[in-house]
Design goal:
Layout (H helix, E strand, L loop, with lengths): L11 H4 L6 H36 L4 H6 L1 H41 L2 H4 L13
Helix pairs in contact: 2-4
């Protein structure tokens, strides 16, 4: 995988967490949630800034003067709506990270005494 372009490599904050036990899954969920929330916040702020820039940059433009000023605002809202939707989806991703952790605890930690196998120490179940 090429790392010379942004967004094309794995996220080091997450990919560097080794799957060694329940604590690592908790760390993964916490860091993943924080990243999703940060990205959602960035998209939300960027959408507000972009709307202002789009409206301001086309004031007095001769072509858009023919189309009318309200049309610029309508077009800007359409563009910014996509960024706001991306922000909402990131908030949803943050919620899913919490649910991922809850599901793991429900399926494995609560069932720990029944599935604990000391002969295969691949996953350290004692790391709670």
């Amino acid at each position: 995988m090429s790392t010379d372009r942004p967004g094309r490599a794995r996220i080091p904050e997450l990919s560097n967490i080794p799957w060694q036990g329940p604590v690592s899954i908790t760390n993964y969920a916490q860091i993943g949630r924080a990243l999703c929330r940060d990205l959602g916040g960035e998209f939300e702020m960027a959408s507000e800034e972009l709307y202002a820039v789009l409206i301001r940059s086309f004031k007095g433009h001769p072509v858009l003067a023919l189309l009318g000023g309200p049309d610029v605002r309508l077009r800007a809202r359409r563009v910014v709506r996509r960024l706001k939707r991306a922000a909402e989806l990131q908030k949803g991703s943050a919620v899913e990270m919490v649910k991922f952790h809850q599901q793991f605890r429900k399926e494995f930690i609560e069932q720990l005494p029944a599935i604990k196998d000391k002969k295969k120490p691949v996953f350290n179940w004692d790391d709670v």
